[in-house]
Structures are given as C-alpha cells and as structure tokens.
Amino acid sequence: MQDTQIATFASVKTIQIRNVPDGVHAKLRVRAAAAGKSLSDYALGELERVAERPAASDVLRRARARSGSVPAEAIVEAVRAGRDR
Q: pTM of the full predicted structure?
C-alpha cells in the first residue's frame, strides 16, 4: 500500500449508530436499493446532505440580523388603515 493510501484511510472517521428501529432500518435499506447503493453509502450521502445545511440556530440568527427597517407599529397601522377603508 502506498503512503498516500495509508494517510487517506487514517483520516476517514467511522460512525456507529445503535438502536436503529427496525422500521427505520427497513425504509433506509429500501431507499438505498432504489438508489442502487449500499445502505452504508446511502446513509453517508444523507449525512453529507444534512451536514451541508445550515444549523437552525444560524438561520435564526441571520434572520434576526436582517430585521426590516419598517417598525412593527407602522406595519400594524398600515394593516388597520387597510381594514378601515
């Protein structure tokens, strides 16, 4: 084995998931087969997809930082004015 291959194998991490309910395992196995993948490859793809999404706390923080320049009171007044027409 070449040194680069050894280094690659050494940097790969393993995750073991215990107590997977039978129904969840069966659904994932079916989805993996439909995708033409092993269960392990399918699960890894799903983990990668989830890991790429921003955390909910980050999304909320960014949303709060983007608060509009219109005060809430002005919005309430505009809605009430529209209803009073």
A: 0.60
| Domain residue extents for the chain | 20-84
CB pairs under 8 A, 24+ apart, for 64-70? none
Query: What 3-state DSSP class applies to 28?
Result: helix
Cβ–Cβ under 8 Å, residues 25 and 17: no
Quick: pLDDT tens for 39-60: 999 999 999 999 999 999 998 8
Phi, psi of 60 (to 5 degrees): -65, -40
pLDDT at 68 exceeding the cut of 80: no
Measuring CA to CA, which residue among 8, 13, 5 is closest to residue 47?
A: 13
> In 3D, which of 30, 33, 31, 28 has the Cα closest to residue 17?
28
